[in-house]
Amino acid sequence: MKIKSTIRSFFFLISVLYYYPINKLRGNKISFTSRIGKLSKLRHSEVGRYTYIARGCLFNKTKIGNYCSIAPNVQIGGMEHSYNWLSTSSFVSNKHGERKTTHIGNDVWIAAGSIIKQGVTVGDGAVVGAMSFVNKDVPPNSIVVGIPAKILKQRLPETTFQMIKDSGCWYDTPSVSRGKLEEIDKKLTTTK
Fold first, then answer.
1. Active site residue 44
2. What is the per-residue pLDDT across 69-101, written as a single tens digit (0 to 9) for each?
3. For residues 154 and 141, is the Cβ–Cβ distance under 8 A?
4. Is 110 in contact with 122 (CB distance < 8 Å)?
5. For the residues 9-17, what does the mean pLDDT come to?
6. Which residues contact 142 (CB under 8 A, 6 or more apart)?
7. Sign, CA torsion 96/124/110/5
8. In this predicted structure, what is the pLDDT of residue 25?
9. CA 87 to CA 171: how far, in whole Å?
10. Across the strands, what pairs with 99?
11. Spatial contact of 134 and 95, defined as CB atoms under 8 Å apart
């Protein structure tokens, strides 16, 4: 089992070292602890620690927090064209407006096929349902779904979410974070 884990870690390190120069050229800042799936393209983006991005994603000028899970074929930021000028082509038109940064908080899950417009902020602990089109800010600790995305409900009770936020677990290593979350879970189960 230990040999298998060592081999897996070795191949992960090789893939990180292989893609590092490509990501630097594209203006990206990606944590070494995060995983980016094949065929995913990022430009002028930042990816926090322990974040997983599946295959086939496309991100432009996006800042992503720690411990996020992003499913296949998600598009975030950029990709907008001016339709009110003489041409919509980016080769001849520079009228595409200001390129705003899209912000994705910590511990966010974005399900498959979702599209998030540039300049939108998705708050900490939020969930974006599959195939959703997000064109407005998403509050922390909420679940949004649909075209356009609408708030379905709160993900966790507000007091529980505040305990998680106050613990600072999004800024620790997985083992420390897991320990903090288990402590919170114990407190919650003993108070019921």
1. no
2. 999 999 998 767 677 777 777 667 666 656 789
3. yes
4. yes
5. 58
6. 123, 126, 127, 151, 152, 153, 154, 155
7. positive
8. 52
9. 45
10. none
11. no
